[in-house]
Amino acid sequence: MTWIDDKGRIHRINPPSGPPVRPQEPQPQPVYQKRRIYCSDRSFIIAGIIAIAFGILGIHNFYIKYYKKGFIQLSATLVAIFLINQAPVLSLLVIFGMEIWGVIEGILLFSGKIYRDGKNYGFWRNWFIDDDTVIFEKPYNYPFKKDWIITSIALILLFIVIVTSL
């Protein structure tokens, strides 16, 4: 293409030197890495249901790996059941207090105030994230180990105390 400026000079626009320019192909979209979310392998819904139904025994705390708190609840309940003939009023107050404690913890689990398990992993709560963008990784891959052994021993002890107190 040529053109003449106001001083009479001729200007030519030369094609660029070098190899001919090909039309550019569309670039592929970048592949985004999936987010890694490390969550507890326990469900807060199941823990809340257990807390409201069996809060007196503290089984929900064993389920969400708060072993010390679960042992305190279970042992207080077992002592209250064992001493129900000697001190009925005190035993009933302890049993009632353990049940209130369990119901409050169930409500706290459902409301999200208790949002981590005993190993400090958060409960999975976001149902609106697309499965294609999130890798749900459970940090533990051991079935039926320490958690279930402790819970089984606690339930066996409870059964023994109930049978011997009758």
Task: Provide a compact summary of the structure.
The chain is mainly alpha-helical and 166 residues long.
Task: Note down, in words, how this protein is organized.
The protein is mainly alpha-helical and 166 residues long. It has one domain (34-122, 135-165). 46% of the residues lie in helices and 8% in strands. The chain contains five helices and four strands. The protein has helices at residues 44-54, 59-63, 67-82, 88-111, 146-165, and strands at 2-4, 10-12, 35-38, 134-137. It has a two-stranded antiparallel ribbon with strand order 1-2. A hairpin with a 5-residue loop joins β1 (2-4) and β2 (10-12). The longest helix has 24 residues, at 88-111. The mean pLDDT is 77.
Q: What topology emerges from the helices and strands here?
A:
Layout: E1 2-4, E2 10-12, E3 35-38, H1 44-54, H2 59-63, H3 67-82, H4 88-111, E4 134-137, H5 146-165
Parallel strand pairs: 3-4
Antiparallel strand pairs: 1-2
